Amino acid sequence: MTPSPTPDTPPLTDISAETPTPDPGPGSRPRLQDEFEDRPVPPEHRRPLLSVSSVWFGFPMVLTNAVFGGVIVFNLGFARGMLAILVGCLVLGGYVGALSYLAGRTGNTFARIAAVTFGPRGATLVSGFLATVVIGWFAFQVGLTGSTLHAALGWPVPATVLLAGVLYVALAYAGIRALAVIGWIAAPLYVVLGIVAIVLALRETSVSDVLSYDGHAPAGGALAFGACVTMVIAGFIDSGTMTADFTRWSKNGREAVLASLTAFPLANLVALIVGAVVVGAGAAAAPASAGGDFLGLLTGQGGVLTAAAVAFVFVNLGSVSAHCLYNAAVGWGQLTGAAMRRLVLVIGTLGLAVALAGVWEHFETWLTLLGVFVPPIGAVIITDQLVRRRTAAARPAGARLRAVPLIAWAGGAALATVVHYEGPQYCDAITGMVAAALLHLALERPPRDAAPAPASAPVPASERN
After folding, report:
1. Sign (positive/negative) of CA torsion 323, 328, 334, 336?
2. CB count, 10 Å around CB of 16?
3. Given a cut of 60, is residue 304 above it in pLDDT?
4. Which of 3, 30, 289, 426 is the most exposed place for a label (fewest CB within 10 A)?
5. Lowest-pLDDT range of 30-34, 247-251, 254-258, 448-452
6. Is 282 left (phi over 0), alpha (psi -120 to 50) or beta?
7. Mind listing the pLDDT tens digit for each residue in 192-235?
């Protein structure tokens, strides 16, 4: 069955004010590919499934996930830790897949999709929040590059952070094609070196020892099961919510979902498992804080593996950093009207300054912020445009700010905050999602006698699947 098309509302301008970009003419100079941050990606510019998948599946293949996977297993033991990892990956996969479906159908950025639900002014608040939060994640990954290479090889932190920041900004500046290329490099490199690390970790133990690992967190200080599930979800919930900035390039909704599934749960699960096995094998240097960071296993094996480990850090963390910076630039481009690539330079410089200030030392606080405040946003959009899609299609045009979705977001975040502090055995990320969705369903009422809102870019029949 073909669902009703979702109205397409630009976040900062009225639909009637949107005009097509003029044709530069046959005599104009070639330029970098248009990123279409201010309008839907035209059908002729949509990319094959393999290309969009390469943008996404390399994203979670990151050393940070090995850290998280190891920390979870250290606290819960291998069996319960793997259950928490699996639950988190499946929840994240469903969440990102639903939002990707909307992106593939419409070709719109996250900000334009959010405007349908929250109204143009409401979307400004939501998009501004996420586009700012993701700058912090960019800064975290840049800083982590410096601290990781300092711990493994003694490289000076400030100089390494500066070098990494410049490289990652250049990658994001190149646009969506560069993200696809780095994805093809980052994912296989992570798999190969992750397998090498596991083989090295198992030299003095056995698979049965790993499977029976009970964890060694101090009594009373262990993370609860729900907190570990939140850690998995929070690791990519910001860019996962803004998935439309990547999956809008898909040919249709179905291919957008398939592209997102290569990352969540597939690639995300693989990346977490590597760290989990390293800790379960007792081969992690500091499992309580650095989890399953396996770089030390590689750098202690001689020149070839050390060189590969250095390349791995830059490619691996560079992939995540560039994706986050791209998210931030596209989001702020919608809010300000500035060109994406100009914003990459400005935001990249800001993020680099934050990285030099040592932001990577506060990742637990950062994950708490992400797990509490971000999941309700996507839950409200999914509820509005998929669960209640007929209501959204019949909504009158012209509302600049819609109060009910904002109330649902605030309510979901508030309940998630309470759970985080008062019920750590539960998952605050899932609590926020469910609470926001239920609040939206309870408070939103279908408009009476309302004509369907006009769409600025009708979805072709071939793309509604």
Report:
1. negative
2. 9
3. yes
4. 30
5. 448-452
6. left
7. 999 999 999 999 899 999 999 999 876 555 688 999 999 999 98
Residue among 465, 47, 110, 39 at smallest CA distance from 252: 465
Nearest to 301 by CA among 210, 207, 197: 197
Whether 178 shows a pLDDT value over 80: the answer reads yes
Q: What confidence tens digit (pLDDT) does each residue in 57-98 have?
A: 878 888 889 999 999 999 999 999 999 999 999 999 999 999
Q: Provide CB contacts within 8 A for 55, sequence distance 6+.
A: 176, 179, 180, 183, 246, 249, 259, 323
Lookup: tokens for 237 = 């919930």
Whether 73 and 213 have beta carbons less than 8 Å apart is answered as: yes
Q: 356-370 burial, b if ≥16 CB within 10 A, otherwise e?
A: beebbeebeebbbeb
Q: How far apart are CA 62 and CA 57, in angstroms?
A: 10
pTM for this model (two decimals): 0.83
Return the HEC string of the chain.
Answer: CCCCCCCCCCCCCCHHHCCCCCCCCCCCCCCCCCCCCCCCCCHHHCCCHHHHHHHHHCCCCCHHHHHHHHHHHHHHCHHHHHHHHHHHHHHHHHHHHHHHHHHHHHCCCHHHHHHHHHHHHHHHHHHHHHHHHHHHHHHHHHHHHHHHHHHHHCCCHHHHHHHHHHHHHHHHHHCHHHHHHHHHHHHHHHHHHHHHHHHHHHHHCCHHHHHCCCCCCCCCCCCCHHHHHHHHHHCCHHHHHCCHHHHCCCCCHHHHHHHHHHHHHHHHHHHHHHHHHHHHCCCCCCHHHHCCCCHHHHHCCCHHHHHHHHHHHHHHHHHHHHHHHHHHHHHHHHHHCCCHHHHHHHHHHHHHHHHHCCHHHHHHHHHHHHHHHCHHHHHHHHHHHHHCHHHHHCCCCCCCCCHHHHHHHHHHHHHHHHHHHHCCCCCHHHHHHHHHHHHHHHHCCCCCCCCCCCCCCCCCHHHCC
Q: How confident is the model at residue 284 (pLDDT cuts 50, 70, 90)?
A: very high
Position 299, amino acid: T
How far is the C-alpha of 419 from the C-alpha of 430, rounded, in Å?
10
Q: Which CATH fold would you assign to the domain 45-362?
A: Hydantoin permease (1.10.4160)
Express each pLDDT in 324-377 by its tens digit.
Answer: 999 899 889 888 888 889 999 999 999 999 888 876 667 667 778 889 999 999
